Amino acid sequence: MRARDRAILRDLERFRCLSRDDVIKLHFSGVRDGVNAANRVLRRLRDRGEIEVITSQVPYVYAVKPSPIKRDSQKIPHYLEIVAVYHQMAQLRKPDVFVPEPKYGKGLPEPDIFAHWGKPLFIEVQRNQFTPSVWTDKFARYRTLYHRGDLLRESWQNKVAPVFPWLIILTDYRIPVPDGLPFLVFQSKTITDLISNKKPGTA
């Protein structure tokens, strides 16, 4: 298998799914006629049984085979939002680490993204409006993770001056942030907006 084929499969596993345009941005940005080149590679991977196509989305969405998501999954747009965040970050500087939906254990937060992008970040991609009680629970989980100190053992951690990731909330709605959180919270519609106007979110 070619190196680019393997890289595409790794990204499909990492992101759960990718649209054809995502594949082009990630793996064919420097290729002349990247659309046709990507189509040929994706067709070859599909014919070999390595990937499957979800035709309910336009452009088509691809996943490894067997797919970790159902073809009609309501989470497909959410996964594509996560990929969109990666693209926004990579346009400025490629993240050193980008992990969709990291798992920290029962009762702990379930961020949409952990990234190391100059500094460690937890990112919540929330395009739907949640009730205040949902956010109260989310902040409580992050506070629990902070006090447990589990992240002190992570490979990205600053051993001399340990840090807790900033919490970035990408949302179209204003989220009430509790006072006294032991970590910084930022709210913005997009990563690009965040960089241009970096102020901690407050209640």
Rg (C-alpha, Å): 18 Å
Distance between the termini: 52 Å
Class by helix and strand content?
alpha/beta
Count of extended strands: 8
Q: Write the element-wise H/E pattern from the N-terminal end onward.
A: HEHHEEHEEEHEEH
Shape: globular
- Biggest sheet, spatial arrangement of strands: 4-5-6-7-8
Domain count: 2
Ranges where pLDDT stays below 50 over 5 or more residues in a row are: none
Q: Percent range for helical residues?
A: 25-40%
Overall average pLDDT: 92
Report strand %. 15-25%
**What is the makeup of the main sheet?**
5 strands, mixed
**How many H/I helical runs?**
6
Could you list some keywords that capture this structure?
203 residues; Arc Repressor Mutant, subunit A; 3-stranded antiparallel sheet
Write the SSE topology.
Elements lengths: L2 H13 L2 E2 H8 L6 H14 L3 E4 L6 E4 L11 H17 L4 E4 L12 E4 L3 E7 L5 H17 L17 E6 L13 E4 L2 H6 L7
Parallel strand pairs: 6-7, 7-8
Antiparallel strand pairs: 1-3, 2-3, 4-5, 5-6
Description:
The protein has 203 residues and is an alpha/beta fold. The mean pLDDT is 92. Helices cover 37% and strands 17% of the residues. It is built from six helices and eight strands, in the order αβααββαβββαββα. The chain has two domains: 69 residues, Arc Repressor Mutant, subunit A; 120 residues. The protein starts with a helix and ends in a 7-residue tail after the last helix. The longest helix has 17 residues. 24% of the residues are buried. It has a five-stranded mixed beta sheet. α2 crosses α3.
